[in-house]
Amino acid sequence: MNEIFERVSIRKYQDRPVEPEKIEALLRAAMAAPSAGNQQPWEFYVVTAPEMIRALSQVHRYAGCAADAPVVLVPCYRTEGIWLPEYAPVDLAIATENLLLSIVSEGLGGVWLGIYPQQDRVAAVDKLLHLPETLHAFALVPLGYPAESRKQQDRFDPSRIHTI
């Protein structure tokens, strides 16, 4: 459970590649997420090509930190072959959280850059990655070995707990 309390958004990375076995471990963790009706609507793009990473970093004004990441993972959701399409974004959010926690576990740093539900962002990433029309970008997750560190703030607020 330590990863839950250690995870922070990391936007600066060392100039160091991420080992393929670590990337596979991250994707295994993401795909271990629960999903509505076990539909598992996810697919993941692993982007390591610097020119594509730079292009993704310009998708919206908050994505600039991705430009220097050695890896950008792009969780995507299918719109065909699933029986509960309205839950696909929820399923992807859970998988992305698993991904973020596993990034910490692997000694890496990363950040969730929102794409969905902003349709202009979704369309821009779909176009850059040449996604088929039945697959759509959900988020960008730049990651790498951290070149910055900080402590997570304590977000526990007892006033938000209601017992009935």
How far from one another are the termini? 27 Å
Cα gyration radius (Å): 16 Å
Task: Show unreliable segments.
Answer: none
Order of helices and strands: HHEHEHEEHEE
Rough outline: globular
Q: What is the typical, i.e. mean, pLDDT?
A: 97
The structural class is alpha+beta
CATH superfamily heading: NADH Oxidase
Major sheet, described briefly?
A: 6 strands, antiparallel
The total count of helices amounts to 5
Label the CATH architecture. Answer: 3-Layer(aba) Sandwich
Count of β-strands: 6
CATH topology call: NADH Oxidase
User: Any idea of the CATH class?
Assistant: Alpha Beta
- Provide the helix percentage: 25-40%
Question: Roughly what fraction of the amino acids lie in strands?
Answer: 15-25%
List the domain count as a whole number: 1
Structural key phrases:
164 residues; 6 strands; NADH Oxidase; 5 helices; alpha+beta
How would you concisely characterize the structure shown here?
The chain is α+β, with helices and mostly antiparallel strands. The chain has helices at 2-6, 20-31, 50-56, 88-105, 119-128, and strands at 42-47, 71-78, 109-110, 113-114, 135-137, 139-144.
What does this structure look like?
- The protein has five helices and six strands.
- Strands 1, 2, 3, 4, 5 and 6 form a six-stranded antiparallel β-sheet that branches.
- It starts with a helix and ends in a 20-residue tail after the last strand.
Give the arrangement of secondary structure elements.
Elements: H1 2-6, H2 20-31, E1 42-47, H3 50-56, E2 71-78, H4 88-105, E3 109-110, E4 113-114, H5 119-128, E5 135-137, E6 139-144
Antiparallel strand pairs: 1-2, 2-5, 2-6, 3-6, 4-6
Helix pairs in contact: 2-4
